[in-house]
Amino acid sequence: MRAGSDPYNRLYERMIGFHTNFRSSYAFLQRFLPQSASLGKRDLEVYLSRAADLCHHLEMHHNIEETYVFPALAKKMPSFALGDAHVKEHAVMHAALELLEAYVQQSTPWPKTVYDPEKMGIILTTLGQALFPHLEAEEESLKAANMRKAGWTESEMARLPM
Question: InterPro entries annotated for this entry (predicted)?
Answer without folding.
Answer: Dimeric_xanthone_biosynth, Hemerythrin-like
